[in-house]
Design a protein that fits this description.
mainly alpha; Isoleucyl-tRNA Synthetase, Domain 1; 3 domains; 10 helices; elongated
Length: 304
């Protein structure tokens, strides 16, 4: 119906083009229609007939997506046939459920179509203006109109990437179920994103706590590892290894490098408050860990 609204029959060139999908889709529609007729003649095999109707819908949808210039009469022919057969099978008691007939009901449907198209266009303009002005209130109202008010009326409004919108009439119950499912999925994704942020914060705070806890150690005591070294100078740098042998120049150079870094960290942590600052970092880590535990528990309950 979107194609027929925006590109009605005879409004543009409708001639079938060589090497296009027009001939192919026409053959597919004709084949499926013949198969429906055979199914009805075969002891009214409705199951097979409905399968063939589904084939028509699938083929036409594919045609409209793949064809550069889909022909409205072909689409209209298929839609009207499906509409007619659905009425015959009693799937719907509305002979114009798709709004394609030419009678009084068809005229009413055309009027409704024009109203909804005008409404969708107005909403597009309103959204564009709200986006330009960064008006979050108006944008929220536009979303609520799409996801709540129009859904209750059985109207699907779909916003496209280019800013335009398309509409279709659908079962309100099924539409609500779909909207609720999408909302639930967004909530799950938001929770997962928040949990990953908390995991990152816990990892960062853990490393930070380890760094500043280590930095609290007096530089003179920093390298006093008796399992590795045997003696030290007044600054705390090692002179000999644990076995009594004199420390090599390479090992001495590495020790000096480690000591310089530690002295820098020690000076910084003392400037930040020493032990009090480390306790603050530890509290922040515990808070993040608690938030992460709660987020994980909520996700587990939802999954269960």
């Amino acid at each position: 119906k979107e194609l027929l609204r925006t590109r009605p029959p005879y409004s543009i060139r409708q001639k079938w083009e060589e090497e296009s999908l027009d001939f192919s889709i026409n053959d597919q529609i004709a084949t499926a229609m013949a198969a429906v007729h055979e199914a009805i003649c075969d002891n009214f095999n409705t199951s097979e007939a409905m399968t063939q109707l589904d084939n028509i819908v699938t083929a036409v949808n594919s045609y409209m997506v793949k064809s550069e210039n889909p022909k409205a009469p072909l689409v209209q022919q298929a839609a009207q046939y499906v509409q007619k057969m659905l009425t015959i099978f009693g799937v719907t008691d509305n002979a114009d459920v798709l709004g394609l007939s030419s009678g009084a009901q068809g005229e009413e449907s055309k009027t409704l179509s024009k109203v909804l198209t005008a409404f969708a266009s107005f909403r597009e303009q309103l959204r564009s203006a709200a986006q330009a002005d960064k008006n979050k209130t108006l944008l929220r109202m536009c979303d609520e109109l799409r996801d709540e008010t129009m859904v209750d009326l059985g109207v699907r409004l779909e916003d496209k990437a280019d800013g335009s919108s398309v509409w279709s009439l659908e079962d309100p119950v099924a539409l609500k179920r779909e909207i609720e499912s999408k909302k639930a999925q967004k909530k799950r994704e938001a929770r997962l994103k928040e949990r990953r942020k908390l995991e990152t914060k816990v990892q960062e705070k853990t490393k930070e706590l380890q760094r500043w806890t280590k930095a609290l150690v007096d530089p003179v005591e920093f390298l006093r590892d008796e399992s590795k070294y045997g003696s030290w100078d007044e600054a705390g740098l090692p002179l000999t290894f644990a076995d009594g042998s004199e420390i090599s120049k390479k090992a001495r150079k590495q020790a000096v490098k480690e000591m310089d870094k530690h002295v820098k960290d020690h000076t910084e942590v003392e400037a930040r408050g020493g032990q009090t600052y480390v306790q603050t970092v530890e509290k922040e880590l515990n808070d993040f860990q608690e938030q992460l535990n709660n987020a994980t528990a909520s996700s587990d309950e939802e999954s269960a």
